[in-house]
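Pilot study result, target chain (484 residues):
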Amino acid sequence: MAMPEGKVSYSSISNLEKESSKFNYADDFNDAAWAIPESQNAHSSSESLLKKGNLYQFPHEPEDYLDEGYDSGEDQYNQYNVVPQKGPPEVNLRNVLGGIVAILTGRSKSLTGGGNVPFSNSNASFLGSAKNGDTFLHSSVYTPSAPPLLEQTPFNYSAYKDVLEAEPPEWLPDSSSKVCMQCNAPFTAITRGRHHCRFCGGIFCRVCSQGRCLLPVKFRERNPQRVCDTCYDRLDPLQGVLINTISNAVQAAKHDVMDWTSMRGWLNLPVGLSMEHEIYKSANTLRSYCQVARLNPEKSIPTAVLKGAKGLAILTVAKGGVVLAYKMGTGLVVARRSDGTWSAPSAILSVGLGWGPQVGGELMDFIIVLHDSKAVKTFCSRMHFSLGAGCSAAAGPVGRVLEADLRAGDRGSGMCYTYSCSKGAFVGVSLEGNIVATRMDTNLRFYGDPYLTTADILLGTVERPRAAEPLYASLQDLYRRLQC
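Predicted structure:
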């Protein structure tokens, strides 16, 4: 049956046989038998055939097969190869890829590069479209579908009872094994030496015993000990419990007397062998500074500088030389948190040179004021450099040093102000250069956590240790005097 505008439509198979003998009907379906001649164009939809009672439904043909029988501009979906769908969207590769493209570009793009499609017509249900055509994620996307990974779970004591109640083993003699008990590699004097596992007592090489762990209470060890790989896997799940119970950081400070009755309070040594010693030295330095500031206010750090400090580094350094002076010392650094409290301490080491007209030797207690967050981040570096100029004068028990320096490390750079009280006989003006490094081994022995970084300590993710209470008491006393 002929239709206007040169279009031909067939309503059923029987009509096709009557009007055109070019089409041969066969019982079995054959694509070749349904080929459309070039001189005619046919268009038939499956819906019209079903309405007229036909039992056979035409297979769906792509739109590019019909050159003139269908105007693609009449359907906005065919322009983008998108078929509208009723009901819940189907989860397939096309919908997933379309959603990813929409998230990355902000608009939906067809897989064939045809252009933008409004998401109101898209099959992706997790995207919506605004009136101006912009797309946004549906609110249901932000709803968490699973509990957080860091949610605390109760500790199962019974599962680790045999480890927590283990007793120190009897170490095997060195002569009992000539090879590593794990990798069976022969021991050598330099490259592969013998090491005993502190938990099982076996003999292992350096490669197979690199782990450091806190041991259970019955071992009576507060520092992390060398263990073999097998014992490390057994002890690692318990480190969180052991850190909060037996590490040096959670113990009460034993040396908290700093008056004249304690000999160690008379003079700070330039090198502290433990964090507890560094805490005592720093607290003693702050106590001595408060006495000097009270007696000689002109020699004290300006109140505005101290109140605006974002952190303090406290060191004891020994310096000596003529023209070229060498200096070395240890100390710690603390940072001020946003709530006004002080962070946990981190141990540091300072080594440097000074050049200029100078002569003598002195022992200096440094207080370095970190006046901004950039300076604090500089001390979060594993190692940083400082360059500055200063003048020094010491004659007898009390002297004065003023310096301003620029520090730079892999975490940033910042300006710091340095004030110190010195003891000795020294005079001069010099250009100073220092290397300040974080003492990772000292932090490990104090906190017991091998994964702890300096940024974790100074930026507030570590609780204030109980062993540092003398330091916090001295800091509180210092700032209470500033408010008077």
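One observation from the pilot: The first strand starts at residue 108 and ends at 109. A full batch analysis is planned for the follow-on phase.
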